[in-house]
What does this fold into?
Amino acid sequence: EIPAGVPSVALPDASMAQLRRLLQPALLVAIFSYVLTVSISRTLGLKHGYRADSNQELVALGFANIAGSFFSSFPISGSLSRSALVATSAGGDCTPLHSLFTCAVVLTVVLFFTPALRSLPYAALASIVFMAVKGLIDVERPLLLFKVSKTDLALWLIAFFATLLLGTEAGIGISVTCSLAAIVVHSMRPNHALLGRVPHTDLFFDVDRIHHSQQL
It folds into this structure.
């Protein structure tokens, strides 16, 4: 049975004991929520040709979770299935105003129509999510990464198979860890070039790329 109605407004428990107990899990949830939300926004931004602002996403998540704390809500984050459904139905023409209409529809359903959803099978919900998410599958991305950067391709494969086999939380955690390790390794081995002078000119190029340049 799906409970009807909305939770009552109440001040969250902000005692020091409660803060100490929730500090570590809250930090993990915050990192996961932020990474997931930014990943969704960047994926949709690449698909529809706009730039995602990571700072704006962080501010939006902060205000949304502060407001939700007064209603005992779950931690707020981006939803891949819902974002995919909106992107599939509206495409790049969708504006942030759609969230207000979605909120109104959800509130109406929660208040008046929850008995009608009790017998809705999970297969029907799964088919809606699958049809929405399949439009986000980008087959050309690994082919492009194979041509541009083998390191990025390896990170993409790690993220894909870790998420597929271990779940979203573990997949994102492994992906972030591997990405940070790749950045550290890359910073420890910076690119360098031995320059040589092209004969009869004042130009200097990498001797590995311009083989007829002469070292001085």
The chain has eight helices and two strands. The chain has a mean pLDDT of 80. The longest strand covers residues 195-197. The first helix runs from residue 16 to 48.
